[in-house]
Amino acid sequence: MVDVDSPVSMRRQCELLRVSRSGLYYEAEATSPEELELMRAIDQLHLRYPFFGSRKLGYELRQRGFLANRKRVQRLMRVMGIEALAPRPNTSKPAPEHVVYPYLLRNLVVTGPNQVWAADITYVPMKRGFMYLVVVMDWYSRKVLSWRLSNTMESEFCVEAVEEALKKHGAPRIFNTDQGSQFTADAFTKVLLKQGVAISMDGKGRCLDNVFVERLWRSLKYEEVYLYAYEDGRAAREGIGRYLAFYNAERPHQGLGYRTPDAAYETGGFQAA
User: Fold this and answer.
1) Sign of the alpha-carbon dihedral angle for 43, 45, 51, 54
2) What are the phi and psi torsion angles at 113 (to 5°)?
3) Same domain, 70 and 174
4) What is the pLDDT of residues 248-272, one digit of tens each?
5) End of a domain among 29, 60, 80?
6) What are phi and psi of 86, to 5 degrees?
7) Are 162 and 188 in contact (CB under 8 A)?
């Protein structure tokens, strides 16, 4: 996928391939086919019942014939980076040394593109493993502004995605994320603060703050990821890239008056800073 003998720098190759640089040097522990199948089932159930915690997920999995006690389900949910979307204490897990920013979207009316952007991470199953996908989305138009794949949950692939979005589209007024350690990391927040962007982070128990990104995950997985058992990261990158291009340019949204995200982004009245 990346050619070490190429005259093109490793950094530039990673940018073109939309993979994180840190992931190139990370060797994941082997995951058994049985555990990958269980993780895929957890992912599908989480999309269908995002409010289910480990106890209810475990019950549903056992009804489907999986060996899945609560402790095992909790462990795999941590690996996959998912948790129940339900009001409860301590739903977000910033690193202790990271700053958590206030939530700025309460009662805010979003009137055009580049007013509010959001980012989120999801788990992507493959035939012999899995990866993590981050997207940066414009809230008004639902347009995916940038994305990256990584085989680690470190913050670097999130930093690369937001840097690309800023380079291509200018700076939004507000950038909203959850309180995950990838987004509270100094490396991530400094990129936004340098551009004068106000940082907003979901409050504890707020389960619908990134509803548009959650809808994207559901569409992406049922219309693309679950239909193809990606052989490797290259196949995942190509398939996801095709789908996100289709999503932006061709897939109309009822909430946008049946316009595509690209059309809504281009015709909005709010200008980038």
Assistant:
1) negative
2) -65, 155
3) no
4) 999 999 999 999 999 999 987 444 4
5) 80
6) -145, 145
7) yes
